[in-house]
Amino acid sequence: MEQEDFVAERERIQKAAELNGYDKKFVDKIIRKHLRKKQRHDTTTLQPEREEVQRISLPFYPKVTNHIRKVLKRHGFHVVHKSGNALQELLNNQKDKVPPDERSGIYEIPCQDCPAVYIGQTRRKFKIRLKEHRKAVENERPNDSSVAMHSICSKHNINWGNAKLLKNVRKSSHLTAWESMYICTEDRPLMNEDDALITSPLFQLTKLKL
C-alpha cells in the first residue's frame, strides 16, 4: 500500500473505532504493533517451516483413548480430547437471564397517538429511567423529559406498554455512539429535542442490522 493510501486507511480505521467508543491511543498501539510485525517480515528471508499435522478429536476415556492415541501417533495423527460435559449439556445453562428492564443501554418510548418515538440512553436500569420519564409526564414537568414535553405540547398519551430496551450496552463509553446510531437511522419522527451527538454516513450501513 502506498503511503498516501495507508494514511487515509488509518484515518478511516481511527474514525470507525472512535465512533464505537475506543480510545485513539489504543488504536494507534495496535497499528504500530502490526507495522513492526510487517517490518520484521519484510527484512528477513527466513520463513518458519510448518509441519502439516492432522488432528483428530476424541472424547477422553483413559482406558480406551490412551491406546488409540499411541496408535494414531505412529501414523502421523495428533489426538486432541474434547470435554464430555454430559451433566452440563443435560442441565443446560441454569443461570437466570437478566430481564431487559433490569439492563442499561439504549431504549425507546413511543407515543400512543402519533408515530413519534423518543430514543435515549441510560447507565442505570431501564425500568428506573422509564419511571422517571413517566413521573415527569404525570407531574407535567417538560424540563425534566422530552417525552413529557411532547405529551404536554401535543396533548398526546404515551404508550408506556411498548417502551423497550433496544440495545443492552454495558460500557458507558459506548452509549453515546450507540444512541447516535439509533437516532440517525430512525425513520419515525422523534420526540428528542436535541440531534445526535455523533453523525456519520457509516450509520446507514448498519441500518439493516439494528
Architecture overview:
This protein has 210 residues and is an alpha+beta fold. Helix content is 41%, strand content 14%. It has 7 helices and 5 strands. The strands form 2 sheets. It has a 3-stranded antiparallel β-sheet with strand order 4-3-5, with helices on both faces. Strands 1-2 form a two-stranded parallel ribbon. The longest helix has 19 residues, at 24-42. The two termini are 33 Å apart. The model has no long low-confidence stretch (mean pLDDT 80).
Q: Summary?
A:
By secondary structure, this protein is an alpha+beta fold.
Key attributes of the depicted protein:
5 strands, flat
Q: What is the 3D form?
A: flat
Secondary-structure element order, N to C: HHEHEHEEHHEH
Taking the alpha carbons of the first and last residues, their distance comes to 33 Å
Biggest sheet, strands in spatial order?
4-3-5
Oligomer: single chain
Which structural class do you get from the secondary structure elements?
alpha+beta
Q: Over all CA atoms, what is the radius of gyration?
A: 27 Å
Q: What percentage of residues falls in helices of 4 or more residues?
A: 40-55%
**What ranges have pLDDT less than 50 throughout 5 or more consecutive residues?**
none
Task: Annotate the secondary structure layout.
Layout: H1 3-19, H2 24-42, E1 54-59, H3 62-74, E2 77-82, H4 86-91, E3 105-110, E4 117-122, H5 126-138, H6 146-154, E5 164-168, H7 175-184
Parallel strand pairs: 1-2
Antiparallel strand pairs: 3-4, 3-5
